[in-house]
Amino acid sequence: MPGITKETVNMIEYRRRKSSQTCPKHPDTHLVYLSGVDRIAPFCEVCIHEKIQAQDRQMHDNLKVQEGRGFLKRASLVDREDAFNYNFDGFITQPNSKEATAKHDARLIAGAYLKYPDRKGNSLFYGNAGAGKTHLAMAILNAVNDHAEPMQKCLFLSVNKLIREMKNWFSDKICIWSPKHVTDVVHAADLVVLDDLGAESANSEATSFVQDTIFDIYESNQKIITTTNLSMDELYRTYHARLVSRMQEGDKSRVIDFTKIADKRSRV
């Protein structure tokens, strides 16, 4: 026991006495007291032991939750660190606007992922750049990360940055983002955002490497929110049809069209 010497422990054992009282919770156990120490009332050693065990379990559970919820920042790849701060309250909309509808639909998606943690199903946010897709996708992750019971591990991957990191791994093997690490970290997560799909393909058909990487990600997890600036027609021109189908696999209400929302970043 930290801070308690062997001599102190020996003294406690020397003064320890069994009383005639028994524990209300453990009737077969006699309360004990310390001879000559009146300020300490008789106590049940079994109760003390159970309390210590319960505290240890609670500490372990708290550490497990902290580690799980910290997975989002620890394991993700973001283009800008402030993206971790995106939430629904920070997504400002005008009443009855297309943005308000998108925000409402994203909240419903977050609610579904929270309420049915074991239910598989992907989501797709597509359309104009700057319309708020990344913001709402991260808002969903933060909502699930903060409120899910039991805890769910959330992961955010910028596709463009992911492909760059993987190419760096092939070049020097120093970077951690090997193909195996990618599939392992995606598989370990409960909910994943693949952000800005299409930016890595320079407005042309995605390379075989990109196609295979993205397909492996969808194979490793069946709860993925994909954001892309491409239209549906452009998605089908850029990626294999099976990939585009995977992006929409699940409830069709989880596909949100941002094509009619103007660039929020360009507004004063």
TrEMBL record:
Residues 85-250 form the Chromosomal replication initiator protein DnaA ATPAse domain. Gene3D superfamilies: P-loop containing nucleotide triphosphate hydrolases. GO terms for biological process: DNA replication. PANTHER family: ATP-BINDING PROTEIN RV3427C IN INSERTION SEQUENCE-RELATED, CHROMOSOMAL REPLICATION INITIATOR PROTEIN DNAA. This is DNA replication protein. It comes from Lactobacillus bombicola.
